[in-house]
Amino acid sequence: MKSLITKLKSFFDTKEETKKDEIIEQVKKIREEKELNEFKEEENQKPKENRYQKGRKYELYIKNFFEKKEYKVYPKGYIEKRKDSGIDLIAYKNNEMALIQCKNWTNPPKQKELKVFVINCDLYINQNKDKIKDKTIRKLFITSNSKQDYGVKCFLEEYNKQNDIKIEYIIINMED
């Protein structure tokens, strides 16, 4: 924008006809760039909504998946939204309680996401000791992406060697 102002000042100072055409072309280019940037900005806002909806649909799909296996499922993520503490679903069956994180991502989840999930599960377990003292706890990290990141693989192996409650990394594709 500053270059345009400088050129306009130059035009009015020199009043050369060739510079006038040059400046008009520059102004057109700047307007086109601005419109294109505004369009791109609008488009970037849409995928955020779509990613949120895509995630919610996947959570519902996984909820139904577990209900078909005779689990009672509390849709923590759906009910508590952003306050779900990183646990999307809690599934109950007999003496079992499964803490579930759902990821419907284009790219495979990274080690960071698993570590956050582990911390969230541990916090939930510690905060709800009275409710879950007689339950068998499962930590299920469920993704729709069929690829597994190498860092995730290494983390799972190491974590599961050292801990009683294992992380189960499960791939469930969503059927459209």
TrEMBL record:
GO terms for molecular function: DNA binding; endonuclease activity. GO terms for biological process: DNA restriction-modification system. SUPFAM superfamilies: Restriction endonuclease-like (SSF52980). Residues 55-118 form the Restriction endonuclease type IV Mrr domain. It comes from the Bacteria. The keyword Hydrolase applies. It holds the Pfam family Mrr_cat. Keywords: Endonuclease, Hydrolase, Nuclease. InterPro entries: Restrct_endonuc-II-like, Restrct_endonuc_IV_Mrr, tRNA_endonuc-like_dom_sf. Gene3D superfamilies: 3.40.1350.10. This is Putative restriction endonuclease. It comes from Campylobacter pinnipediorum subsp. caledonicus.
